[in-house]
Amino acid sequence: MSEPLRRRLPVAVRMAFFYAVSFSGLGVIVPFLPAWMAHRGLEPSDIAIVLALGQVIRIVGNTSFGRLADILAERRLILMGLTVASLLSFAALLPAWGFWHVLAAYLVANLFYPAQVALTENLGVIAAYQRGYDYGRVRLWGSITFILGTLVVGWVMPVTGKEGILWLALAALALTASTAWLLPVIDIERRPRMPKAISAFLCDPVFLLFLGANAFVQSSHAAYYTFATLHWQKAGLSDFVIGLVWSEGVVAEILLFAFSARFVNRLRPTLLILIGALGGILRWGVLAATTDPLALLAVNWLHACSFAFAHLGAMHFIARAIRPGLSATAQGLYTSLGISVAVSVATLVIGPLYAAQGGVIFMLMSGFCVVAALLAFQLDRQWSGGELALKRLAPA
What is the pTM of this model? Predict the structure, then answer.
């Protein structure tokens, strides 16, 4: 019965539903898992180390599963397996207490869950180009449920305590695994294995500029994702207000995705990344200066720039500059080197800085966006607008 149902539902509807289900877990994990770690006995510096090493281990998962998806010319089945592995690996956190136990379980989880998110984006963008739907309007459903996830934690935590954070995450992961069969099949031409694909990407100056610009703009969120909730709790903000501030940023992200079709085909992806970096400069500067709720609400809508504009730019750059049969490899490198490595380094740096200086760390994040803007400007000048002619790329 499930297979006819899968074929009857439009691809855009199925993809939107999967984004909605899978990103609800992100809304729990990203803003609140550090608070759960603190509840399980970790100090701020311990949390920074755990999250940073988790970013490092993502390199293995993102790159390996992305490369496998290109070699096999398969997205859907690999993604279905990753949803199950993500659920089981996060369940290993249930008995974890203290630094070493939490670290071990979290590293295992980061082999699979980030790769699941990355491959979801790759499948979603390719399906949009092949099936003709609006990627932004499909992707926004993930942002909507991200908000719901953050709000549910704010409502549930007064009853369950911080233990409820992990249970809510597991519920979302279980729902994701149970509905992954709805994912669409996309057409990817199977090519001979190309063992030099990764080195070809890493030797291409335009792709390196792309990685660098995104590395700085996305790693500028390290302080936000790691310490914003703890910082605002320490300043006396309630869980409801914190959830509201987080949600405002994602509402702005949703609106941008909803109307992105009006400009993504008119603006070069490189310019979208540049706009994201410029918005981040202002956003993090204000967060460094104050914890006043009105001031936070006045600028946190710039998440639509620092994340959403930059994200749209990255996704459409990969879709336009990389051939489909290598796009999962490019996506894996982007999420691994362009995000995970950069975020892990930033997280390790800001851990001790936050302990010593508190919210001043957001000013460093603003500096990251200055560098990102410079690299994005240079990327826009050097990219021709077409598919990259990767050198050193030959079939095995």
Answer: 0.78
